[in-house]
Amino acid sequence: MTFNQIAFKIFKANLRRYLLFFLCNSFSIMVFFTYTTIYTNKKFMNPSNINYSITNNMVAPGVMVMLFSAFFIFYAQNSFIKFRKKEFGLFMVLGMTNKDIQRMMIIENGLIAIFSLLTGLVSGTIFSKLFYMLIIKIIDVNGVPFSIAIQSYIYTTVFFTVIYLLVIMKGLIESFRYEIINLLKSTRKQDNNFLNSPIWSVIGIILIVIACLDMRINNSVENSSVSLRSLAVCFLGIYLLISNMAWLFSKVTNYFHYKSYKNILFIANMKHTLGQSKKILFIITLFVSMTIFMSTIAVIIISDSKRLSTAYNPYDIAYAQIFGKNKITVPQLDNILKNSKTNLTSLKTIDFISKPYITVLSDKNLNANLGTQLKVEKGCFISLFQIVKDDGYEHETTAVSSLVIPIKGTDNTYKPGGEITKVLFNKIPILSNGHYVIINDNDFQNIRTNSNQDDVGKIKLMNFNDWYKTKEVLDELKSNLETSNRKNKTYFDNINDDIKWFKPASRIADYLDDKQSGSYSLFLCSFVGILFFISSVVMLHFKLLTEYDNEKVKYKKLYKIGITDKEVAKLISKELKVLFFVPYILSIFVSAFYSYHLPVKQGGQMVTLMYSFIISLIYFCFQIVFYLVYNKVYVKRLIKDLEK
To answer: Do 597 and 612 form a contact (C-beta atoms < 8 A)?
Structure first.
């Protein structure tokens, strides 16, 4: 019998394992391609078609999908090679050289890579349509057609080609160190662990404490990098801790030595299992923690959408008449308001002057129309920051050091007279890219008289009985403003930019946008969460599948000294509980801590903690179901094989 015939027979005997590895690769490619089709859809990513906050939320889940694909394939490949090492050892006993093994690895991995890529692209092409329809349904947007750009195929092919090349190179480099005795014993050997030392355990605990203190003391909206820094340090500490979990487990059981005698077999098995499982435990902890944390953020966005849309929009609808734009007549406005489903309760007008990067307001005009009590000295100005401090975002709050406005060829300089942080009126797009300053009314009138009249504008502020019913009147107002603006010369380079920057600001639009953004983020996080759950299932299955033959040998020996089926089932269940639930318990604590310290409104920490625990509970329930099913199948199969 030739080497090729032996290899083919082994391939037939292990067809299910080859198929599982192939399906894992194809699934990763399909998921990556599906996500890429959204990212490369130009009409979907165009802010004029889809809310910018929605398209901006593609980045973080996209990075997680890339990490998922890379980790998943690398882990599946490592498990597959670990399983094959015993066969490689057998081949070398029969006379194969390292060069023959390397050639076999290149052919096998090359064929699997090519067929996986083709299968993944084909299935991704089919599945991406369904995925896109689901997204459009969730964000409730029409007029954005589905399309697959050629870049999706290119990006996917390049990304996975690089991964497969790295995987093959890693396997080839390791093959130079292959020795027959080590290959034959590979499935029984514990993973190499140069971090297995009490010192590293202590360092890991110290790093976790430092990360927690850093988050508690330094985290703020103004210092948003703290959370990323803290998470990185925390996960490094967790990795060091997990790497030494076998040592810690040994110390704990030795401390309770009286009780440990009753579970000596379980303890011995767990020391070996924990020593072999540090990588998978850490990867699952990392993935699950980030999924719960990001899902919590998405739920917060949805729940906080009403508060923020109200805080940033004191008036239901507002728009600015400036630069010859948005100048609809009073009868036109009355006709629009007459068709509203809810009655108008107030209509106010604010005067302003637009200067480069500065919007100038009058103290007297604001007092008369908005009910403020401002008094600005002549020759001075007050900086106005229209921000909500606890909205979870970082804001630029650098005040204007001096205000210089030319009047009749002479530069008039105004001195700073203080700052106000309060939202007085809606965040109107055309006025949002500059500073607001409030000056004395006499100074305002002087500047107004000597300014180009196109730079002098009005802000219209409207309130209604029920702002939830203002969507129709807002759409009609936008339509009329766009029609009016099309008749004038464009202010920006094209009409689309004019429509974008001169559109009204409204409470209902911001509310719906925030709600859409949160729903979309939650969907993406749920999607990524399902991927991570599936990957954790497959990784655990790969691990147990790789060790199955050794477990069978071990329990057959225990059978000879009198262990019963019931005791075998109990022992296996205990081991599986550790593998299945330890990373989830760690993930719940990590995500809960960081969710609690998110920069939310005062008193909202307990609410975010509750959201985190609810999401964790859902995730945990899925894991419990998977554990119960897998434990039953695994134990039943093992006992059946033992009885043969």
So the answer is: no
Query: Beta 380-385 vs 410-421: how paired, if at all?
Result: parallel
User: In order along the chain (644 residues), what is the average pLDDT of each group of 10 residues?
Assistant: 63 69 83 86 76 71 78 76 71 74 79 88 89 81 80 91 86 70 57 66 89 84 74 89 77 63 69 75 86 83 80 91 87 86 91 89 92 90 85 71 81 87 90 86 90 88 92 90 85 82 90 82 80 79 77 80 82 86 90 82 73 89 90 87 75
Q: Which residues on neighbouring strands pair with residue 253, listed in sequence order? A: none
Whole-number Å distance between alpha carbons of 370 and 382:
16
Instruction: Report the pLDDT value the prediction gives residue 118, as an integer from 0 to 100.
Output: 92
CA 441, CA 436: separation in Å to the nearest integer?
15
DSSP result, 551-598: HHHHHHHHHHTT--HHHHHHHHHHHHHHHHHHHHHHHHHHHHHHHHTS
Q: How high is the pLDDT of residue 26?
A: 87
Q: What is the pLDDT of residue 606?
A: 81
Sorted by sequence, the CB contacts under 8 Å of residue 25 that are 6+ apart come out as 73, 76, 112, 113, 116, 120
Euclidean distance between CA atoms 473 and 467, whole angstroms: 10
503 secondary structure, DSSP code: S
Model-level pTM? 0.74
Contact 426, 315 (CB under 8 A): yes
How far is residue 580 CA from its own chain's centroid?
A: 24
Identity of the residue numbered 519: S
pLDDT of residue 365: 92
Query: Helix, strand, coil proportions of the chain in percent (round to 5)?
Result: 70, 10, 20
User: What whole-number distance in Å separates Cα of residue 182 and Cα of residue 189?
Assistant: 9
- CA–CA distance, 555 with 644 (Å, rounded to integer): 13
pLDDT of residue 11: 64
What does the domain layout of the chain look like in residue ranges?
1-189, 192-261, 312-511
What is the structure's pLDDT at 507? 92
Picking from 279, 85, 283, 77, the residue whose alpha carbon sits closest to that of residue 191 is 279
Q: What angle do CA 399, 301, 604 make, to 5 degrees?
A: 80
Task: Give just the sign of the alpha carbon dihedral 614, 616, 619, 621.
Answer: negative
Backbone dihedral region for residue 354 (phi beyond 0: left; psi -120 to 50: alpha; all else: beta): beta
- With b meaning 16 or more CB within 10 Å and e meaning fewer, what string describes 466-496? ebeebeebbeebbebbeebbeeeeebeeeee
In single-letter form, the type of residue at position 288 comes to: V
Q: Using CA atoms, how far apart are residues 342 and 466, in angstroms rounded to an integer?
A: 6
* Cα separation, 382 vs 186, whole angstroms: 74
